Amino acid sequence: MTILSAIPSATYRLQLHGGFTFADAEARLDYFAALGISHLYLSPILTARAGSQHGYDVVDHGRVNPELGGEGPLRSLSRACRTWGLGLIVDIVPNHMAVGGGDNGLWLELLERGRASPSARFFDVDFDTPTPGLSGKVLAPFLGEPYGQALAEGKISLIWDAALGKLTFAYGPHRFPLRPEDYAEVCGAGAPEKADLSRWRDAGRLHALLERQNFRLAWWRAAGDAINWRRFFDVTELAGLRIEDEAVFERVHETIFRLYGEGVIDGVRVDHVDGLADPPAYARALRARLTALNTQRPAEAPGDGPWLVVEKILGEDETLPTDWGVDGTSGYDFMDEVGALLHDPSGQATLDALWTELSGRSTDFEAEEARARGEILHGAFSGQLAACARAFEAVAQAETTSRDLTAEGFRRALAGLIRDIRIYRSYANGEGSGDEQPLGEGLARALQAARVAALADWPWLDFVEQTLIGQAASAPALRAEAARRLNQLTAPVAAKAVEDTAFYRYSRLLSRNDVGFDPRRLGLPSAAFLEGGARRARDWPRAMLTTATHDHKRGEDVRARLAVLSELAGEWGEAVRGWMAMAKALGAPAIAADDAYALFQTLLGAWPLSLAADDAAGLAAFAERLAGWREKSLREAKLRSSWAAPDLDYEAANQAFLRGLLDPARAGAFLQSLTAFVHRIAPAGAINGVTQAVLRCAWPGVPDLYQGAEFWDFSLVDPDNRRPVDYAARAASLAAGAQDWTSGAVKQTAIARLLALRRAEPELFTCGAVTPTPVRGQRAGHMLAFERRLGQRRVRIAVMLRVAGAIRTLGELPGAAWWGDSEIETADGWSRAHALFGGAPFHLET
What we know:
Strand content: 5-15%
Shape: globular
Strand order of the largest sheet: 16-15-14-5-2-1-18-17
Distance between the termini: 27 Å
CATH topology of the domain at 11-94 and 241-310: TIM Barrel
CATH architecture of the domain at 11-94 and 241-310: Alpha-Beta Barrel
Number of helices: 30
Number of strands: 25
């Protein structure tokens, strides 16, 4: 069978690793096809660090990952997909690659030969840093202790590495090749593999040799201040790539281009596009190169591709520029919108009061974010901030009119700007444009806020603005470099400060804290959601729609269940106060109330529907899952523990608190109370879960199903959200047309029904408009109805919203008495809501 289009009607995301390979995916194609997806969407497929569970730590762009099976099994999977009428989309990682260790040839060559190395162009290294002892070198902050201590303790040695075929300094698994100029001194005239290296065991002699190398070994704690190369966020094992260099662009994509040209894959999702120097230029170049390869693709491969989406976090009122040449984002924006739709805005005041009562912290998320930005910027990104300030100083020094503007002034001004910006980055590049607002609204607002907050720094802020829009009079290359450094700094600061810090501190309602979300907004009115759908149909009909990912903080059905608390905020507050008292009476270790509150939400949201309050084994297994989340949440928040300085005593108290509450022998009363509340809100949470799935499958765009999430997804943050999936159970359920609520089969059945309709009517769902369908009556606010229309073809869909007050048991839906006179307009006129919904949480009319 030949697939009809490279553009998916629906994708299914698979996390590949050594335990789930190309062959494993191929063995399940019958199920994926039966579910109704059109394309598999694979995690990165290029050679990654040995044992990688995700594939984003690429070490070789020239080979398909042998741990996944290698290129042969990938081609076999592609051929098998074609027989089922399926295509393949792959995730690509142009922003960074894994370094350290001894498995990245490009990195090792850089360390060996330094600035003169052909691989130097691949990495974003500042060889002219003013840091003493680092000029012309690459900082290598991979030591677990201070350099002098590691040297004195003999942890650094000079060895012959047979696998690399080089003399290299070794520190644990890390390799730092000896520069070629020193071989004669080390080996004499003999073969390097036979050299007597014993004399280099002397710490003083070894230090003198190390000082001559093209790298400088350092303690990992020095990285934030001194590192002179761009990392992925603050991860020293992932180095940023200069993908803006044409040779680097071609090398990084060589395998992807070849596989696309040969018809093995049909499109790509680009990871972290905002980390690149020039995302618009990159996206256009990628589109052009892939499109040019369409003429080479075999006849059985569709020629209307590629499908190209980018991972892009959009800020408030921010939209993806339409001139990038992409099909849209990878869907976090939809995930935020549909999640907010499920929440009741009327619960906000009660939830605000509860959060302040328990935590003593402000409900002002903007202030929480600003504090986190300041901490992150002056910590992990201190060195990058200084380099950015020096870049703007270089622009200023090029002209007499601005030469009095100092680097320290730019450092202060930029810190204020980055603290106040509420988007990942701008795309101002120092070249100027004809736009009325060349900075973009987000950056312009941040500049104004920074001016108000630090009036004395206005000359530096004005000059930053002039530089970004191309009005500074200095050389264009200096302006471009300053703009690049700023844009490549704001994006990682946003990720680390917001998603990985503030989201773990601000626990008003955790269902509104996830990748791409805006926690300031609790709920979204139906009218606003429908307006957004109309814009999607007009501007981004091929963008990805997702509600669960490998990066989410909580599974889609955890969030759907917790959303119910916005409807029952008063009851929720009473329950939490009672649980706090129970925990104290049990003698549970004292932990901060806000940490306990986040735990109670997590217990409630992730509680498996089949888990009983007296199931000791099941509770112990659940506790193990929660233990990983607890450690990560405490360390990411950086309030009472952190990755850099873990407070093991406080963490142990939290673990004891958690395990004590899940011990039925000690905490039976608490567990009975908790499970009663779980079952109080689970029915409404399940309806939310089905509603969310139906909207994802019916909305303009390409719905993506994260592996296994066609059943209830009660997963937590990684690695919990990457656990093995029971495909046999899902295949059996689909074949039986099961409607079970407990397992989530009812959700799977709804998804399959909508996806079958999408495959039967691809043009309608790709090109059709979104038109609101009128609703009326006493429960009109609890329904959302709309029509997908293309010419004379149309589909009407209605879903329930916020019905917690109407249901008490799982599987029970609101009845006629509750719906009362509520009606929805249909093709045959006005119809009563209770009759249309019948025994389902949604109505579909074709």
